[in-house]
Design goal:
InterPro entries: TAT_signal
Radius of gyration: 28 Å
Keywords: Signal
CATH class of the largest domain: Mainly Beta
Distance between the termini: 70 Å
CATH topology of the largest domain: Beta-galactosidase, Chain A, domain 5
Number of helices: 14
Number of domains: 3
Helix content: 10-25%
Protein name: Alpha-galactosidase
Length: about 750
Amino acid sequence: MVRNVSRRQFIRSTALGGASLFASGAALPAFAAQNGEQDLAHAATIENEFVSISVDSRSGDIIGLRNKRSGRDYIATTKWAKVFRLNVPIPGLITGFNADYSANSFDSWLQSDCAITRERDAKGQILRISYPELKSEAGNFPIAAIYTIRLDDGSDEAKLQLQIDNRSRFEIREVFFPWISGVGEIEDRATDTFVAPSMIYRGADLRNHFNADANWEEYPFLLDIPKWPDGYSLAMPWMNYGGKSEGLYFASMVRTGIQHRLMIQDYGAVTHPILSFAWAFESYIGPGKSWRSPELVVSLHQGDWHAAAAKYRASLEGWYRKADTPLEFRRALGTFNSFFTHRDFMQIAELAEDIRKYGIHHLVMWNFGDYYPKVLEPDDLSVDPPRLGQFAAQWGGPPRLQAANQKARDLGVSTGIIFSQRLWNKATLTPELHNLAEEWAIRRESGDPIWESWDHQHFGAARWSNRQQSFGQLDYVMCSAVNGYCEFAVRNVRRVLQQGGYSMMFYDQVVEGNLCFSARHNHADVSAPSIATPGFAEELRAGMKADNPEAILIGEGWEILASQHLDSGWVWRMPPNPEVLQYTLPWVINTSAVPVDMGLANKYVILGLRLAIIAGGLENGKSLSDFPVFAAHIRRLAEFRKKTEEFWVNGSFEDDIGLMASGAFAKVYETEQHVAIMAANLTEDGSTFQFDFDMSRYGVETESYSLITSNGGNEEKIAAKKENILKGSIPLEPFELAAVIFEKRKAG
C-alpha cells in the first residue's frame, strides 16, 4: 500500500530528476529508525572475517557496513538508508514540479516485499535481493529489479550489481545504484577526507564545494555532481571516504565509457556530516528492455586513500594497456605552445631556435582556423566566414610549412599541431558538408543537434563565445560512434601531419562527455559517443604510428580510458589534487598548461607533470626569450630533470607516503634501486627544507644520501637517524629544487 504524504514531502521524495529525499521522520517508511540511530532489527547480513554488510529484509536498503578489523560501523543512522532509485517520467501525470512536470521515482525505501536469498560457491557468498515489481507515488508498475552483493572469502571488497527488466510502457531514464546512505564519521571529523581523482576535501568541508546557485533542495548534491568519462571532472570512476587508518572505497569496475555521475549528499548537521554516495547512470531503458549495471565495488579497507587508489590500480591488471610512448618524449620537461601570430609558417623555425636554448625540444602550434572540417583544402576567402584549412597560402603554403618543420627537426625540435575535427562551424559548411554534419552530429533527446561555440580570434576584446553564446559561431559536435565521421577525422589528421611535416598531433577535446539520441545512429546505448571515443583515439594513434613510428598523440583531458591510447593527456585547468591521479596511474604522462610562473612550474615538476608552457598567452606570439628570468628557470628545470631522469622516466610517484616535510613542496619517487624525495621552493624567498623520512617503508640501506639541486649542487650528505626515521635540513634558494636520493637495500 502506498502511504499518504503531504505535498512538501511528496516534492522531496519524487525529486526533480533525482533531487532531495525525505527530510523528516514523518515522511519515512514505518519500519525506518526514527531517532537517527542504527536499527538492525530486520537485518539480513552477509559477512566474512573482514566486513559485514546488512540490508533491510523488507526494502533491501543497505543499513549496515561494519569494518570488522576496526569494529566501526560506517552507517551511523538507518534513517537515510537506501540502495537504488529509478527515475521514470510518466507523461500525462503531473507528479513533479518546476520544469520537470512528469518526474517520478521508484525508490528502494518505498518497497516492502523484496525477496532475499543466499548462495555460496567456491569463492564466497552471494546475497540476492529481488523485486518482482516496483512501487512509486504513482502506483505499482511491472518493473522487476534484482541486485546482488558478492563477498568473496578473504576479501574486504563487496561487489554489487543491479539487473532491471522494464515490462512497463514507460522509459527508465536514470538509475542510482548502489546508494550508500547514512554514512557518519569514519575516524574523526577533523581528519576524515573525501578523495576522488583528482580532488581531496575534508569531509566537514564538502558542503562548501557545491554550486549553491544551482541547488534548491534541502539536501543538495555536493561537488557539482562529478562525472565520468570527462577530461576535467573524474579521471577515473572511484572515490574514498575515510581517515588515516581506514575508509570506504566506492568504485565502478566498468571498462567502457558508460556515463557515470557521482552523487554526494550531506543530510547531517554542519558539525556532524551524514553523507550518502551513489553512482547515477543515464540508462534510458525502454519498454520491454533490460539493463545491467557495471560491477560496483564497496570496500571497507585499512589505510588512507592511497590504499583505495592501490585497489583501483590493482583492478586494472589484465585490462589496462599502457601507451608505448617513445623514450624521447617520456624524458621531456614539456612543450612550448604558440599560435601562428606572424602569419608565416617559418615562425615554427624561429620558435624552435629559441626554445632549444632552454632545454625544450617539443613545439606545439595552434591553428583552429574557423573550425572548417576539410582542413586539407586551400583557404577559400571568397565567402564570409571564410573556409580555412591548415595550409594557408598567405602564410607560405605547404612548401614553407614543410621547410619550417624540417628546419625545426634539424635543430632537434619535434613539432606538432592542434586543431579540431570534433567541432564543425555551421556557417562555413558547403551543402555537402552540411548534409554530413546533419548525419553525423550528436543529438539531444529532442532530436536537435548539440551546439558548442569556441571563437578563438577574440584578441582579448570579448569573452570566449562559449561563455556568452549570444554572439560568435555555432559548431556541430560530431559523434565518434559514427564510422563515417571517424574515418573522415583520422584521414584528415594523418594527411595534415604527413603533408605538413609534423610529428605530433594534439587532438582537441578527445574525451567525449555528451549522450547521443540520434535516431539516424541507432545507438544501443545513449553513452555511445563516450563508449566509442577510446576506440577512435586508438585508431588515430595506430594510423599515426604506421606513418611515423616516432609520432606523438596528445589529447585534451585527463581520463583513464583515453590514457591507454595517448602519449599524454593535456588540461587547461589543473584539478585541485592531481596527486590522486598521479599515484593511481604513475605511468601515465599528464600535462598541464603553465603560464610564466616559476612557483607553479616548480609545483608541476615535483608532481611529475609535463609543462605546457604558455608564454604570456597564446595569441601574443612571444618567445620564451621574451621572459628571460622565467626562461633561465626553465633551463635549470630541464637540467635538473635530466640529472634525476631515472625517477621521472622509470620511477613511481609515491606521493607523500612515509614523508613529513616543511619549508618546501615535496613528494616521493621510487625505482628498483633508489628512492628520492623531490622538493621545491615555490616562493621568491629563501627557505629551509626539512624532512622526516621513514626509511623502513622503502627499504633504505643507510643514512647516506645524494643531494642534487637545480642551482647546480651535487654532493653526498648524511641524514640524522632516530629509530627508522631519517631527518634532514636543506637550505633552498628562491625557486630552487632539490633531489634527496637514498639507495635501497639490495635484494638478497
